[in-house]
Amino acid sequence: MSLHRVLLMILSGQLALAGMAHAQGGLSPDVRGQVITRDAAILSSEIAGRISALPFREGEKFAKGDELVGIDCASYRAKLDEADAQMRRAERKLQAFRVLDRRGATGKADLDLAEIDADAARAIRETAAIDVSRCSITAPFDGAVAEQKVKRHQYVTVGEPVIDILSAEALELELLAPSRWLSWLEIGSGFSMRIDELERGFPAVVTRLGARIDPVSQSVKIYARVEGDTVDLLPGMSGIAHFSGDSQAPAQ
Q1: What's the CA angle centered on 232, arms 137 and 193, to 5 degrees?
Q2: What gap in Å lies between CA 53 and CA 186, rounded to an integer?
Q3: Phi and psi of 151, rounded to 5°?
């Protein structure tokens, strides 16, 4: 069972107590939440080959465009060289037929076939060039390595996951709250999030409300941004969100 799923189950267990406290008109209920990142990806290999480079270790940061994984490209470069030669040959042949056509020394069908051969050679060369570009997996955003799923010199197949990355910059909070909160909670509502790992609170503001209610737990996901400095926060940290009485609508 994934850590994310376990956390959601724990959060769901808080909902009944939170709802009771709210219904009794006592202190505003608290719910647990976690820090998540909007930019995260498990990158896979688009070609088969041997891993030749893993420049960044787990936990190390990288910039957008940095090479994260290198795959041995010797065979793919050789195929590109061959395709390049075949393309030049086809284009040279096409030029010759065009000269003959202008002199009336060849038929239209021969010229058409030469043009088709040249187009096919260009397509093969382009495919080979794409494979060469896939020998290097680059970072789609600024971030850090969460997990290396392969080792250097290991052979990987097409589609095999090779590295798990995430951004520590585009952070937000995810809460699981009682669905009855939708009667007073709205975008822009402020609250405080006390992070267990750091033992201190962070001011936050609700930015999105979940589009679906879980009918079993009668819960809804709430998303928020942290106001101020987030340099100490890491994805996966969790804590308790406290909404002050000012954030709630008066009881009816």
Answers
A1: 115
A2: 48
A3: -120, 160
Q: At what angle do helices 74-102 and 108-133 cross, to 10 degrees?
A: 160
pLDDT of 72 over the 50 cut: yes
CB 181 within 8 A of CB 224: no
Q: Which residues pair with 44 in a beta bridge?
A: 161
Structure pTM?
0.74
**CA-CA distances (angstroms) from residue 221 to 1, 156, 170, 210?**
20, 38, 18, 5
Q: Would you state the torsion angle of the CA atoms of residues 170, 176, 177, 179, taken in this order, to the nearest 10 degrees?
A: 110
| Residues whose CB falls within 8 Å of the CB of residue 160, separated by 6 or more in sequence, listed in order | 44, 45, 150
Going edge to edge, which strands form the sheet with 67-71?
Answer: 136-138, 67-71, 49-53, 155-156
Contact 227, 203 (CB under 8 A): yes
What confidence category does residue 71 fall into, taking pLDDT thresholds of 50, 70 and 90?
very high
Interval 200-239: pLDDT, tens: 999 999 999 999 999 999 999 999 999 988 888 999 999 9
Distances (CA, A) of 5 to 9, 167, 170: 6, 21, 22
At 14-63, the pLDDT tens digits run: 444 444 444 334 445 789 999 999 899 999 999 999 999 999 999 999 99
Looking at residue 196, its amino acid is: D
Joined together, the tokens standing for residue 244 give 């002050």
> Could you read off the pLDDT of 148-186 as tens digits, one per residue?
999 999 999 999 999 999 998 889 999 999 999 999 999
Backbone angles phi, psi at 75, to 5 degrees: -70, -35
Q: Which residue carries 């669905």 as its tokens?
A: 179
